[in-house]
What does this fold into?
Amino acid sequence: MNYSCFDVNIDHGIAHVVLNRPEKRNSMIPAFWDELPALIDAIDKDSLARVIVLSSTGPHFSSGLDTSVFGSSIESHDHPDSLAKLQRQRGARLYDNIRYMQQSFTCLERCRVPVLAAIQGGAIGGAVDLITACDMRYMSEDAFITIYEINIGMTADVGTFPRIVKLIPEGIARELAYTGRRMPAQEAKSIGLVNGVYDTQEEMLENVMAIAREIAAKPPLAIYGSKRIISHARDHSTDATLDYIAIWNASMLQPEEISEAMTAAQEQRQADFVDLPARRDKMSDGVTS
It folds into this structure.
């Protein structure tokens, strides 16, 4: 898999996805929004890995959106009638573009395997949208987040608000949104936004990879179920989630996986769990809706 904004390495059940444009502070150019969902979908669809680690290069994790993604919503036209029609489409075209970008991060939430974000330097603007869509977040000591959009006259629109208010207290989310201030790593950890803070990026990656290896050694079917149920619980009532997990286990619980886990523990060996099956996709099968 070759991409212009990412390097991807898959080894021992772990897909390491690295933002690779440090000279541009890993800004999110138009290609970014196409490549991220494509690579996540490829990993998930064909069960290429049991866990994904998302990290970065250079002084900042990401400086957020490159405003060129919005492009010029009104192309240059000599004919005044054509220009007038394009101007009337402006809102609808921008809406469509924003929804497309939102899907690029929702893919992290919807994929069947956990996604761990390892953040150094700044996670700025759109990068906050990105990391809040991940399952877990880790930071180096020098890292910070900022909902920067307010500083340039924008409302964050690619996923920060519907997710961050479920990760941290609402008042703190509002403060970050209204002021655009930087929240340093230790503060982010103190409010539960990140799972751990490490002295250096190297130490952070070493520890995140260790956590990824631990996850990869667990039964993928049970990890998949856990991710689905936790996400469902976040968005639904307790009663609805209790019913959902009962239905899930009634159809997905595998006695053979439970037996293998118990036997491996008794024999003090690594368990031999089955991988997730390849995911069927109607579009890939040539079927359109």
Q: What stands out?
A: The mean pLDDT is 92. The CA atoms of residues 183 and 235 lie 26 Å apart. The chain has two domains: 6-216, 218-289.
